[in-house]
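User: What would this chain look like folded?
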Amino acid sequence: MTKKEHWENVFSTKKETEVSWYQVNPKTSIDFVIKTKIAKNAKIIDIGGGDSYLIDSLLELGFTNLYLLDISATAIERIKKRLGEKATNVNFIVSDVLDFKPDMTFDFWHDRASFHFLIDKNQIDKYAELVASAVAKNGNLVLGTFSENGPKKCSGLDIKQYNEASLNIVFNSNFDLIESITEDHITPFETVQNFLFCNFRKR
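Assistant: Here's the prediction, encoded as C-alpha cells.
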C-alpha cells in the first residue's frame, strides 16, 4: 500500500472521532497563531491537517487567507462537507507535502502530527528545504511532533520522535527557535500522547 493509499483508507474507514489525533479544540495551535499577532489576511497553511478543526477555529477568528494541504482527497472532502459554505474561504491542496511546490510564501506554516511521519533523512532534509523557501522572512513555522516520551507509531506507521534540540537541528540553518512546549494529548480512546511543539521564526 502506498502512502497515499494508506491515508485514503484511514479517512475512508474511520470517523473523525476514531483517529488518535482528533481534537475538537486545537487550543495549543491557536495559541501559537494568536501569540504571533499576525494580520487577519496573513497567509496561513496547515500541513497534513486532514479534517482537523484548526481551519474552523481560524475562520471563526476572522482569518481570511487560509490553506490546507493533505495527501488524502477523502480528508479534504470531509472537511469541505463539514465547513459547508465556509469552505469557499479556504484554499485546499491535495498533495504529499514533499511534492508541494508553492508559488508563494506563507506567513505561518503549521504542522501538527504530520512531520514526524518522515523518518528517512532525505525526506526530512527535503521538508527542511521546502519550508526554508516557502515561509516568508520573519514568518513562523510551528511543528507539533511526538516527543521522546510519546508513541513510536501512529496509525500503524513508524514515526520519528523529537526533543527540542533534535528538532532545532533540522531547521536551525534558516530558522530561530522562539519557544517550545510539551503537552499531553488525550486521544478519543483515552490514551495519552506526549507532544513537543516548537515555534520557529524565519530569518
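The chain has a mean pLDDT of 96. If you want, I can go into more detail on any region.
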